[in-house]
Amino acid sequence: MKTSLMKGAALGALLAAGAAVAPASAQDSIYVANNAYRTGPFSGSGIPIGDGMRDYFTMLNERDGGIGGVKINFEECETGYDTKKSIECYEQAKSKNTVVYSPWSTGATLAAIPRAHIDKIPILSMAYGLSASADGNQFPWVFIPPLTYWDGASVMVRHMANELGGMDKLKGKKLGLIHLDAPFGKEPIPVLENLAKKYGFELKLYPVAAADMQNQGSLWLSIRRDRPDFLYNQGWGAMNPTAVKEAIKNGFPINKLVGVWWAGGDDDARAGGAEAKGYKSLSFHQAGANFPVVQDIIKHVVEKGKSLAPKEKVGENLYNRGVYNSMLVAEAIRNAQRLTGKKVINGEDMRRGLETLNITEARLKELGMEGFAAPVKVACTDHSGHHKAYVAEWDGTKWTKASDWMDPLKEEVRPLIEANAKDYAEKNAGWPKRSEPCEKSS
Amino acid sequence: MFYREAGQYKSTYAADMAVFPIRQDRIGIAVILAIAFIGIPLIGNDFFIATVMIPFLVFSLAAIGLNILTGYTGLISLGTAAFMGVGAYACYKLTTFFPSVNIILLILVSGLFSAAIGVLFGLPSLRIKGFYLAVATLAAQFFLQWAFVRVPWLFNYNASGAIEVPQRTVFGLPITGAAATPETRYFVCLGLVVVLTWFASNLVHGKLGRSWMAVRDMDIAAELMGIKLLNAKLIAFAVSSYFAGVAGAMMIFLWYGGGEANDVFTIRLSFNILFMVIIGGLGSLIGSFMGAAFIASLPTILKFGLPALGVPLSGATAEHVTFMLVGALIIIFLIVEPHGLARLWQITKQKLRTWPFPY
Amino acid sequence: MSDVAARPAPNLLSNGWIKAGLILAGIVLASIVGAQLDGSGTLHRVLIDPFQQMASAPDLLVQTIWEGLVSGVLYALIALGFVLIFKASGVFNFAQGIMVVFAALTLVGLYEKGVPAFLAVILTLGVMFVLAVTIERVVLRPLVNQPDIILFMATFGITYFLIGFGESVFGGNPKQMITSELYLPKGAIDAKILGGFVSFQKIDIAAAIIASIMIAALAVFFQYTRIGRALRAVADSHKAALSVGISLNQIWVIVWFTAGIVALITGIMWGARSDVSFALEIVALKALPVLILGGFTSIPGAIVGGLIIGIGEKIGEFYWGPLIGGGIESWLAYFIALGFLLFRPQGLFGDKIIERI
User: Fold this and answer.
1) Is C38 an 8 Å CB contact of chain B?
2) Which of A285, A407, B236, C255 could disulfide-link to A373, CB 3.0 to 4.6 Å?
3) Rounded mean pLDDT of A205-232?
């Protein structure tokens, strides 16, 4: 009996602590919250991304003493890719006055979008989340640079056309879409349907239920029956290595299998062994450690033992994606500091910083990222920018750039985004009209 | 000393059959309600209310629903999450069709749809028993989950493929949507849970509840005594799914506030609710609350509470430790008291009665 | 006290509700048939078209059945782990899925630390043995004689613990299964038959062979050895077994260890098909319909059930799935099992459920 009473007392203490979790935020640093998932079935992708994000901020703190002389207080909140935990993390980020919230899952983004507009916390969902949120008129607090899933799908169509020798050659071809049977996986469908109608190719859908991610046998039989000319893989986590292995097993030409950028993990391709050579994935930044920025990370973070990543994993594709995301956050903070003249900014300043984000070639060079990524420019109405992407190819040991930078079919995607954003605002009765003014010029 | 029934005489049959026959119990309930309605909103901050209290209430309601089926009627179901999903989608469709109707009413009505689906998937229970039935209800879980993704009508053809919770007001106060404050949502949840718990308590203490328990203890014997198995089992499924449906609607509308509903109502949630019922105590309403607190709130409190107490844990390690701790606690609790937390509570009360002179 | 084993199941047709429902369904069906059988209507696509497809591309049919066969064998392997434990200790072991992950992770993790492949296998077996002893000591022994559902709950506690423990030791990132180091074959055999080609993966063939050997070995072990006989005695009655001097604790360690071995083999096979990560845990859910179909207590049931589910769901998904948007594999297995259950509530090979009043 005694033990259970003591347990009760301990629980009571914990409860009280839970109630008093909101600490005073130190005024000499900028708090940046980030959702991470180093546990759970998707941790394979979550770990390198989290490492990349963390290491970039550690590097800024170590090398430059933060941004504009202010240290960045970067904190991860573990979600396990579970929406319930993501919501807890959001509430924690809110109570600690974060300047930006990175949800790192489509479910978490969807749950956070309505709240962020009330709580005035900018959401940065880098190339994931709700494609329609690229419309700054309806979603002033959500940012989705450098491009959306819909842009990605259109880049895939452009890649297909390039391989075939022109947009007119698309007629009569078959494109298969393997997708996770969830909102994330279904994102590209409306755009691909539109493009299929316009260019006269046929779209075949191959859904993969979450429970069958590692059990895709019958799906690949269907692919063998339908013989699509190209496959686009909107997959995530354990689904990707399985798809690569099954493609090899079923004799599907691996160089016709193109993954969305999230299907471009090193572990995803490595699963296929030597035969996975030629597997492709879209990307908007380069992989590899041969960039000054990554070298700086190695020098200031990894070699000082402050990184969680083993050295050989630094510079992998998903690691660099984390670095890229952190770079966007850091540049937006810098931009907000410049706009407001404040050192320690808040969420509203950060929103302005993100909205006028303009990372030029010159700036990329200063950051040690020349050739690492394409320039990014966000505008008041266009919160994505619909920037270029390229096709990366797995050469058996690492990802290499296998095509030129390609523009998405913006003229196809943009009207769809605006229509859907309007639709979202209408369906979410009581959606606030944008009250935040656009910046004059920057 | 303070918890005594001496001197409290029961002069009517009704008084003897009361749910809380002892005056101190009635005072206790009043105190708990006072804390819930007045104390917590005063003391707790937004973070505590939004991440601990609201989920606790939602899960408690779902656990009560499953307890009616599993604890009182003896039918194991692993489809609770799917039935919760039915409630959530029904509520979404209803508020789309009838935007001006009070959303609280719609949440209550949406449970009826869930009840209907529950009865449909409850039909095999007439033939199949025990763990076989448990696995058979998985058919409901996986089929409905598939349907939530595949039938775009359910989510109003939203491009996001998710339920987007619109703002609904009652007397000018936003109840759902992002503008609703955590306190408002908490009060709505609390009101619904209190009313439905009272309803459940009356059901299980009445004729229906007794027939359920007869079926649970030995269904053939119950049948010989004149209880219609078909009716008793199907009504249990209906009531259970009703509670689950209301809990699901509350979950999406009052807690998540929109989001990818399909990744919410997964098999994992079904298991979790079953575990709440078992660890809380089969066939006990108060146990459902304790189970929900243990399985749903404890990990959250550990995760955010330990760092606040100064335990240096973070990120992945904290998550691992939480997992191990919860797993170990489950086993310890089962060994200490296999009949659940509710039984521990019973024992405590018994000891209190004789305290300080146990002989 | 009378045995009511032969009690007829409640005659469904005697109930008014169901009779009315059946008649209604009949009328609706008949009218649909009348309207649709002629052209390319729904019914044509459901009842005729898939069979035409089968006839026109027999190689694909063979391939589908082969795929179903292989996944059926793998489902059967997972189900076998469940059955062994259920038979001997009456525990519905929710932790079987995580044991698969844990075994595979231990193997790969040890190999990554530089342990030679086969030594790693032996060490992993050692770890699984320690796990079995620990579970018996810490969880099963104190919970002896508790209701089934409590033991079921306890295995959930084990699952939680193993998830946390496994991740903190081995990390959450996915790992490659060491197939070639274990001399598992790679590549495929393409057979030209029936006007097309059917490709048989060597690893799948190996999986089928290993699983068969495993099952045969288990059958021999349980049929002819002293321990096997003791185990069957325990399965029949704990009390009777105890009274003739069989040590329950020893038997439990043995079955949990055997389930651990099965988990390791399952982990190697599934791991070779994709990779070794915590997502593999989900695969274990696939064994549940196999279990109810075959019966919780029958080893042959697990095998036959696995094959029926494996082949059934592959054919269903491949030929009928596209009609309703695909992805039906996730629930089809449960409906197949449910269909069988309505006629045999204890599964195909399960022990007859005997109820006494």
Assistant:
1) no
2) A285
3) 87
